[in-house]
Amino acid sequence: MQKREIQRGRPTGTTTYEAEPAIAFGATVREERTSQGIAQETLAHMAGIERSHMGKIERGEHVPTLPLILKISRALKCSAAHLMALTEAKLAEPEITKSED
Hints:
Distance between the termini: 43 Å
Number of helices: 5
Low-confidence stretches: none
Strand content: under 5%
CATH architecture: Orthogonal Bundle
Shape: globular
Mean pLDDT: 85
């Protein structure tokens, strides 16, 4: 059996990537950031991460770790639970629209 390659930006040992939760979380962060009038670069600086990494998180290209979620929530002056609740609501949205079709 051939060893699977681990892609950059993922925690050690992670070989899978689930796009839907990553995209939903990224959209939540972007909405919270823009509603507060904070530039992406400013938020990245406040959270102590690179702007390019913040962009990848917001686009759903990277799944942030728990410590990073906590840094982002502190920078947005909200709880990680609030970000997760909004993300869960986004994940539930497609199910509602699918059942209406």
